[in-house]
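Fold Annotation — chain and its backbone

Encoding — discrete vocabulary of local shapes
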Amino acid sequence: MPAAISSGEFFDRTRARLNFDVPAGLTDAGVIPPSGDQGTDRMLEIVAREQPIRPAAVLIPVVDHPQPTVLLTQRSAHLNDHAGQISFPGGKIDATDASPLDAALREAFEEVGLGREFIDPIGYLDLYGTAFGFRILPTLARVRPGFKLRINQAEVDDAFEVPLAFLMNPANHQLHSKEFRGIERWYYAMPYQDRYIWGATAGILRVLYERIYLP
């Protein structure tokens, strides 16, 4: 396991390694976002042939406490997509959004009332593809403490913070698998207390770990 890094070093590394270049794969079906797992990559190729691309943006809000945390949400149980799952604030990119960053900030405010005045965007993480045809572009951001959330119960049941140190510890990165049309695909899970963080959310957190914590 790599040595723990301080809050200041974490944000310094993210600023050095991330930027706001929008990847072509966000809207180009011919570009398959690599996952690092061959089974998942084959699944994404199948999905890209069968479903239209659904560009989406999420915010990875790292709250700058002395021990930083990541703000996550639990989606409402009545939603059509990913009901009840742990997620980042975010959603599909609308035509009126100026950029994926703008979409992520808009969704964070609509879902949990996190105001832009508390958010310092740092850059985009790698594009992440899902089995539902979503191409997710995460924005990593430093969030200044002192905000007050306003939960939109139509979209979110709850919002909570998880220590960054827990999420960035590979010992907490469980690897599970399931079958997709005869293809075994792997996915990450990071259970925390009574919260089951898995799927795209855990996968994006794993990408963050690999981009920032590994040499």
